[in-house]
Specification:
The protein starts with a helix and ends with a strand. Strands 1, 2, 3, 4, 5, 6, 7, 8, 9 and 10 form a 10-stranded mixed beta sheet that branches. The chain is of the alpha+beta class and 232 residues long. β2 and β3 form a beta hairpin. It is built from 6 helices and 10 strands; from the N terminus they run ααβββββααββαββαβ. The longest helix has 33 residues. Helix content is 39%, strand content 29%.
């Protein structure tokens, strides 16, 4: 017995070292960063997307029970097939991103037209992006995330933080007024980019204001003004 222990002791030490200094830190980081440890997160996300698809796209067949995580976009992804055609769903923070339904809503509600007419879609100057997600528990209720990007030249007036927040609040309220008919907005982000020099390739300074609304909460100007500006 002692000889067996001596024989396997080096392997046990290597395994313990690997577990303590690699596996546990990776799992801990993933839990803190993404909410679920490896394997559990992949399986749970796949289960949510499969449940969602069964209700919304019953003719879709999942290609497995394991979701792939993409660290670049922060989404779990699962592929489906229907009559030889491939589709995919994304999952983040318990919400499902369904490109097929989002594009259908985009066209039905004429989002592109509304943004363009109201001056909220000006490439390279004022860009508004609207994304929709759904919960597997309530796939009939859409939840929107809005990202606004404003680009300023180096010679634009420099505003104080208070004045900057006031202007950003006005811009966000204008965007929300246009997009309100499309459904409740859960998350808003407005980033202002400003050239730090006169040359085109000079770096940008980014000022961001983000607002996250709880379910049923109505966006007000006061809510926006209570947000914190982050400058990078």
């Amino acid at each position: 017995m002692k000889e067996k222990v001596k024989r396997y002791l080096p392997r046990l030490i290597v395994a313990a070292f690997f577990l303590i200094f690699l596996v546990i830190p990776v799992c801990l980081y993933t839990v803190l960063r993404f909410g679920f440890p490896p394997v559990i997160g992949n399986l749970l996300a796949a289960r949510r997307m499969t449940s969602y698809a069964a209700q919304v796209h019953p003719d879709w067949t999942p290609e497995g029970s394991w979701a792939v995580y993409n660290m670049e976009d922060g989404y779990y992804w699962l592929s489906f097939t229907k009559g030889g055609q491939s589709y995919s769903l994304g999952c983040a923070d318990g919400m499902i991103w369904d490109k097929v339904r989002e594009e259908a809503l985009w066209e039905e509600l004429e989002i592109e037209k509304s943004l363009r007419i109201n001056g909220l879609r000006q490439p390279g100057k004022f860009e508004t992006h609207w994304y929709i997600s759904w919960s597997a528990a309530a796939p009939e209720q859409a939840s929107a995330s809005v990202f606004v990007y404003v680009y300023e030249d180096a010679d634009a007036p420099v505003l104080t933080q208070a004045a900057c927040k006031e202007e950003m609040a006005e811009q966000l309220m204008e965007v929300c007024e246009v997009l309100a008919p499309a459904g409740p907005i859960r998350f808003l982000s407005l980033s202002r980019y400003r050239h730090t020099g006169p040359q085109e390739d000079d770096p940008w300074e980014r000022t961001t204001l983000q607002i996250e609304l709880s379910e049923g909460e109505v966006l007000t100007r006061e809510t926006v003004l209570s947000g914190e500006l982050v400058v990078k």
